[in-house]
Amino acid sequence: MTDEHQIPTTRQTIDLTLFELLAQTRRTSLRVDPATPVPRELVERLCRLAMWSPNHKKTWPWRFGLCVDGGRGRFGETMADALQSAGLDDEAKLEKYRQKYRRAPAVLVVGSAPGDSEIRTIENRDAVASGVQNLLLGATAAGLASFWSSGAIAANGAVADLFGWEPGTATVAVVYLGWPTGEVNVPSRPAPDIAVLDD
């Protein structure tokens, strides 16, 4: 049997219908058990999967921060403090930020490192965002429920400081991960509108 970390030397195929099923049944759901932990090794595996998304110029911009147990509350306090400093004075919203990351046993914060130019920073974010989709599909394959929440631009600096990321790192996703306690409906999607040039 091949070690899970060993990269195959020949291209392998999987049944496209099975992959379609995986993509089409991915859930955006917070119906999770907040008390049952997600194994650290599984989260690490999902992060490795994220890093297989396309990355122009091989800048490796992914940054990951995992919040579990009390770390979820610490992350919430960081978010609330940063937003309050930026001018948010709605105490109910601030309290929601302090508490909401406790809804799942694992909260994975995914950042995008800045590039050496504006265009490279944009390309880095594209790579990280596509990697988050890899991560979500992997979570679904592993039986986890997941929820992709955006961060808050005003808190980017505080979040980068919290995790020790370089200045200018932007939060692309705050991903709640947990074992599902119920099902959610899968919304339908419109058919793709494809403009074809064939002449």
How would you sum up this structure, described in words?
- With 199 residues, the protein is α+β, with helices and mostly antiparallel strands.
- It has helices at 16-24, 40-50, 70-85, 91-100, 118-141, 156-163, and strands spanning 62-68, 106-112, 145-149, 170-178.
- The protein has a four-stranded antiparallel β-sheet with strand order 1-2-4-3.
- The chain is globular and about 55 Å long.
Give the helix/strand layout.
Elements: H1 16-24, H2 40-50, E1 62-68, H3 70-85, H4 91-100, E2 106-112, H5 118-141, E3 145-149, H6 156-163, E4 170-178
Antiparallel strand pairs: 1-2, 2-4, 3-4
Could you spell the SSE succession in H and E letters?
HHEHHEHEHE
Task: Please state roughly what percent of the residues sit in beta strands, choosing from under 5%, 5-15%, 15-25%, 25-35%, 35-45% or over 45%.
Answer: 5-15%
What general outline do the C-alpha atoms trace?
A: globular
Mean pLDDT: 93
Short description:
This protein has 199 residues and is an alpha+beta fold.
Write a concise keyword list for the protein shown above.
199 residues; 39% helix; NADH Oxidase; alpha+beta; 4-stranded antiparallel sheet; 6 helices; globular
